[in-house]
Amino acid sequence: MRTHDPVRAGDKPASRRGRSFSAPAAPAGRAVAARWHRARLDPDVAEERFLRCHGHRFVAGVDEVGRGCLAGPVIAGAVILEPGWAPSGLRDSKLLRRGERDRLDGEIRAHAVAWAIGIVEPGVIDRLNILRATLLASQLAVARLPVRPDALLLDAIDIPHLHVTQRALVAADRLCVSVAAASVVAKVARDRLMDLYDIEYPAYGFARNRGYATAEHRAAIRAHGASPIHRRSFLGAYEPSDPDRPTFWPVDGG
C-alpha cells in the first residue's frame, strides 16, 4: 500500500538524493535537507500562539550552540518574545551570515521580553558528557531569565528537573521564532567568546573554525597539542601520538 505523501498539492517534492542549501555558519558552509523533506527555513509563531491560547503567557524558546565542537563551551540561549513580534529575516542562526546574526542579536536583546544565556565550560563537559552539559546550559539559561517562563519550546529534547510546560520539536530552530531567536543569541555570544580565545590561543584558528573539527583545527592539535579550552574527552586520535612531544599548554594548570 502506498504511503501518504505529506507534500501539499502543487509543491515539488525534494529530491530522493537530498539537496543542500546555503548555511554560512555550518562547518562546510552548506546544510543538506533530509530525504523526502522540503527544507523549512522561515520560522513562524504557530507554536507560541498554540501555547498562549492554552493559558501560557510567557513562552520561552531555548536552543544551544557548540555541542559538536572540539574546543570551547557549549552555550544555550533562552528568549521570550513579545507576542506578534519577530525581527525581520530571523532564521536558524546556522543559516545566517555573521552580519545578519549580529543585527538580529541586537534587535532581539533590545526588544525581547527577556533573554539570557547559560554557559558550560569544557572541563565540565568532560566531567558530565556533552548531553548532560547541554541540558545544564539550557537549565542555566532558563533560570537566568529575568521573567519566569510558564512554557518552553525546545529543540528535540526536554530539560529535566524543570517544573514548567515543555514542548520539544525536531528542528525547532527552523519552526519557532522564539527558538530561532535563542539560537541567534547563543551563537553570537559563543562566536564573540571564540574570537577572544583566538587572541589568547592563536595557533588553532578559533576565529575561523569556532572550535569545530575542521582540517586546519585538527592539524593544529596534532602539531601543538590541546589548549586549556579543548575538550579532552572529544580529542581522541587528534592529539599528538608521541607522549614526549612538547605542547604549548599545561594540562589542568600542572
Offer a concise description of the structure:
The protein is an alpha/beta fold.
**Which oligomerization state do the chains in this entry correspond to?**
single chain
Strand content: 15-25%
Domain module tally? 2
Nearest-angstrom radius of gyration?
Answer: 20 Å
Q: Distance between termini?
A: 65 Å
Helical stretch tally = 8
The major beta sheet can be summarized as: 5 strands, mixed
Along the chain, the helix and strand elements come as EEHEEHEHHEEHHHH
The CATH architecture name of the largest domain reads: 2-Layer Sandwich
Determine the CATH topology of the largest domain.
Nucleotidyltransferase, domain 5
Mean pLDDT across the residues is 85
Query: Which stretches are low in confidence, meaning pLDDT under 50 for 5 or more residues running?
Result: 1-18
| Proportion of helical residues | 25-40%
CATH level-4 homologous superfamily of the largest domain: Ribonuclease H-like superfamily/Ribonuclease H
Total beta strands: 7
CATH class term of the largest domain: Alpha Beta
Helix/strand class: alpha/beta
The spatial strand order of the largest sheet comes to: 5-4-3-6-7
Q: Assign an overall shape.
A: globular
